[in-house]
C-alpha cells in the first residue's frame, strides 16, 4: 500500500510508482490507438476513396455510454471491496488485541494477589499461560495474514490467470500440500528493512506445532483453538468473575468474524461474465475511437492526441478496478499484510512488557508523573 501527498501537482502527475497510466501495456495500447487515428486522418486528408465514414454518431455514442457506465460500476464495486477489506482487517486485529489485553489485565491482577499469598504454583501457571498466549496470538496473526495473502484470487494470478473451478483449486492445493510461510523471530528482525517479506514472531513454532499445522485443513482455526483452550484451562485460576471473562471469548469471535469477512474478499473473485463482457465492449469501443474522433476533429495533431487520452482514461480506469478487486494481492497498491502483522506483534509486546505491570502496581502515581520518574530512576 502506497502513501502519498494528494496535495501535490507535478509530483503526483509524473509519479510512475504504483501508476496504471505509465504501465507499458497501457501506453502501448494508447499509442496504437493514436497511430490508428493518425492513419484514419491521413486517409481523409488524402482523399482516399475507401476512407472510413460514419453517417451518424448515435451508435458510437450509445456504445461509449454503455462502456463508461460499466467501467464506473465496476470501479465502484471494486472500491467497495477494497474498503471493506481494510475495514474488516482493522476489526480483526483490534478485536484480537482487545482479547489479549483483557487477558493480560486479568492475569496481572491475579498474579499480584498470588504473590501476596506466596502461591508459587498459581504464579507459575499464570505466567506460563501468559507466555503461551502471547506466542499463539502472534502465530494466529501470522497464519491469518498468510492465508489472506494466498487467497484463491491471488493463486489464480500466480497461475498465469487461468480459469479454475473452486473444486479444481481445492484439489490442486491439497496436492501441493501445506507450505509454511517464512518466519523470523522478533529479536532477529531488522526493523530497518523498507519491505517486510517474513512474518515476525516472538518464537518460531515448535516442530510439533508445525506438524499439526501441516496436517490441518485450516491452520487459522487450529491456532484459534489453542488460544481458546489455554483461556478455558486457566479460567478458574483467574480472580476475575467468569461473566467478565466471557468478554475475551466474544472479542476472539468478533476477530474471527472479521477474518472470515476478509477471506470472503480474498477467495471470491469479481464475476467472470461481467469482466469478460466489459473487456469485449472496451476493446470494440477502443478500435472505434479513431474513427469517431477523427471524423469530428479533422486534425492530424489534435485527433491522435485525443484518441490517446480517451483510450487511456477508459482503459486505466478498468485497470484500477482490477487492482482494487484483489486488495490482498502482491501489487504495489495492495494492502501490506506483513506490515499489519508487525504492528500487531509490536502491540502484543507493548501490552505484555514488564514495565507496564510494575508501573500499574505502584500505589503513589500522581498526575504529574513524578512518582513514575522516580521509579524509573
Automatic annotation (TrEMBL):
Query: Where found in the cell?
Result: Membrane
Tell me the superkingdom of the source. Answer: Eukaryota
List keywords of the entry alphabetically.
Ion transport, Membrane, Transmembrane, Transmembrane helix, Transport
Give the stretches traversing the membrane: 21-43, 55-73, 300-317
- The main location is membrane
Membrane topology according to the record: Multi-pass membrane protein
Pfam families from the UniProt entry: Bestrophin_2
For the keyword Ion transport, the answer is yes
Q: Please name the PANTHER family in this protein's record.
A: PTHR33281:SF20, UPF0187 PROTEIN YNEE
Q: What is this protein called?
A: Bestrophin homolog
